[in-house]
From TrEMBL:
This is Reverse transcriptase Ty1/copia-type domain-containing protein. It comes from Gossypium anomalum. It comes from the Eukaryota. Residues 5-107 form the Reverse transcriptase Ty1/copia-type domain.
Length: 390
C-alpha cells in the first residue's frame, strides 16, 4: 500500500488512506483477509481494486452488506448495522432459540460477587450459579432483540461529544468502581466501553474523575483519527459528566484534599482544558446515557437510554406497517407484530426500499407471501400460515 502512496493510520494501524489533489480521499480497512474500501474518490477506488487483484486472489462483493458478523442495510433514513445472524447462531448453539425473551440484559440492582452466589456449576461453562443465570438473562434479552442495531444518519452537527460515568464501589468483593464512556461523532454513536477501575476510589468524585480521564483519552484518539482523514469537527471536544464535584475539580484544580489521589489525571485534564482542546460540562443524571454501561437499570430507563444511543430495529426486524423488505430474490411484508421471519442467509442481507403497495390500509396487517418461512422460534419451516395477530 505504501508503494501506491498510501499512508498507514497512526490512530488505527488497520487503516490506510490516500488524499488526492482534488481534496478527495480513498480509505482501505483490513482485518486479516477481509477488506473494506470506502471514500469519495471513486476513480482511485477502482485503481486500487485493480492493483489488489493483481497482487492477491481477490473477490469483489460489491456494496458492503456483511462484514465480520455485522449486517449492513441502507435506506433513505441512513445506514443500519446489526448482528442478527450472529445472535441467532449464538442462541442456537446454547439451545435458547425458543426461550422467553427478557426486557433488559440484567436485573435491576443486581450485585454479583464470588463468595455467596449460589452453588458451583460446571466450570467448563460457568463457575457460579448466579453468574450463569446472569449470562442466560443476557441471552434471553438478545432473543427478544436479535435485529436491534445502530442507525447512522446524516446530521448537520459536526461535534465530538463524550459521555462519561462511573459506578462508585460497585464491585462487591473489592469495592472497585466501574468506568464507562460512549462517544458521538457528528451526532452518531461510534465507540463505547465499560471497564473496572484498577484502584479503589476513595470517593464518588474520584471515581467519576477517573472515568472522565478515560473519556478524554477516547476523545483525543477520535480527534487524531479525524485529523488523519481530514474530517472537520467543531472544537473543542465536549465531555459530559453528571458529578458536579468532578466537573468542579476539572475546572478548579486547587481541590488538594479531593485530588491528591488522582494527581496525574488532574494534570492531564487541566492541560487539555487550558489548551482549549476539551470542554467539561455538567448534565443531569437522567440525561446521562453512559449509565447503561455502568449500572443495572429499570426497563423504562434502559429503553430510554438505548433510544438516545441510536439503537433501532434493523430493516429485517422492522415492525412498521408498509415497509417493503427485500431479501435477495425474496420479497415479503412483515405482519403487524413482526411474527415469523423469512429464511435469511449471511449472503442475503436485507435492504429497505420505499415501494410498499398503495392499496393497503395504514392499519392493515402485512403478512409475508414468501414460499420459504421459519417459525418464530426457528424450529420448523412452512410455506404459508395465517398471521398470529389475526
Amino acid at each position: 500500500m505504501t508503494s501506491r502512496h498510501y499512508t498507514q493510520g497512526q490512530a488505527d494501524h488497520t487503516l490506510f488512506y490516500k488524499h488526492s489533489d482534488n481534496g478527495k480521499c480513498c480509505i482501505l480497512i483490513v482485518y486479516v483477509d477481509d477488506i473494506i474500501l470506502t471514500g469519495d474518490d471513486s476513480i482511485e477506488i477502482e485503481r486500487l481494486k485493480e492493483f489488489l487483484s493483481l497482487e492477491f486472489q481477490l473477490k469483489d462483493l460489491g456494496n458492503l452488506r456483511y462484514f465480520l458478523g455485522m449486517e449492513v442495510a441502507r435506506s433513505k433514513a441512513g445506514i443500519s448495522i446489526s448482528e442478527r445472524k450472529y445472535v441467532l447462531d449464538l442462541l442456537s448453539e446454547v439451545g435458547l432459540l425458543g426461550c422467553k425473551p427478557a426486557e433488559t440484559p440484567m436485573e435491576p440492582n443486581l450485585k454479583l460477587g464470588t463468595d455467596k452466589d449460589g452453588e458451583e456449576v460446571d466450570r467448563g461453562r460457568y463457575q457460579r450459579e448466579k453468574h450463569l443465570e446472569a449470562a442466560y438473562r443476557i441471552l434471553r434479552y438478545l432473543k427478544g432483540t436479535p435485529g436491534k442495531g445502530l442507525n447512522f444518519k446524516k446530521d448537520v452537527n459536526r461535534s465530538i461529544e463524550v459521555y462519561t460515568d462511573a459506578d462508585w464501589a460497585g464491585a462487591v468483593n473489592d469495592r472497585r468502581s466501574t468506568s464507562g464512556y460512549c462517544s458521538y461523532v457528528w451526532g452518531n454513536l461510534v465507540t463505547w466501553r465499560s471497564k473496572k477501575q484498577s484502584v479503589v476510589a476513595c470517593s464518588s468524585a474520584e471515581s467519576e474523575y477517573r472515568a472522565l480521564s478515560h473519556g478524554i483519552c477516547e476523545g483525543m484518539w477520535l480527534q487524531r483519527l479525524m485529523g488523519e482523514l481530514k474530517l472537520s469537527y467543531t472544537k473543542p471536544i465536549t465531555l459530559y459528566c453528571d458529578n458536579q464535584a468532578a466537573v468542579s475539580i476539572a475546572h478548579n484544580p486547587v481541590h488538594h484534599d479531593r485530588t491528591k489521589h488522582v494527581e496525574i489525571g488532574r494534570h492531564f485534564i487541566t492541560e487539555k482544558i487550558n489548551k482549549g482542546e476539551i470542554c467539561v460540562s455538567y448534565l443531569l443524571t437522567r440525561q446521562q446515557v453512559a449509565d447503561v454501561l455502568t449500572k443495572r437499570l429499570s426497563r423504562k430507563m434502559f429503553e430510554e437510554i438505548m433510544g438516545k444511543l441510536g439503537s433501532t430495529i434493523s430493516p429485517v426486524e422492522a415492525r412498521l406497517n408498509g415497509i417493503n423488505v427485500v431479501i435477495g430474490s425474496i420479497q415479503k411484508y412483515m405482519s403487524c407484530k413482526g411474527a415469523c421471519l423469512a429464511s435469511i442467509g449471511p449472503d442475503q442481507p436485507a435492504e429497505v426500499v420505499d415501494d410498499a403497495p398503495k392499496n393497503l390500509n395504514p392499519g392493515a396487517c402485512l403478512y409475508t407471501r414468501t414460499q420459504s418461512m421459519l417459525s418464530c422460534d426457528g424450529s420448523h419451516r412452512h410455506t404459508r400460515r395465517l398471521c398470529p395477530c389475526a
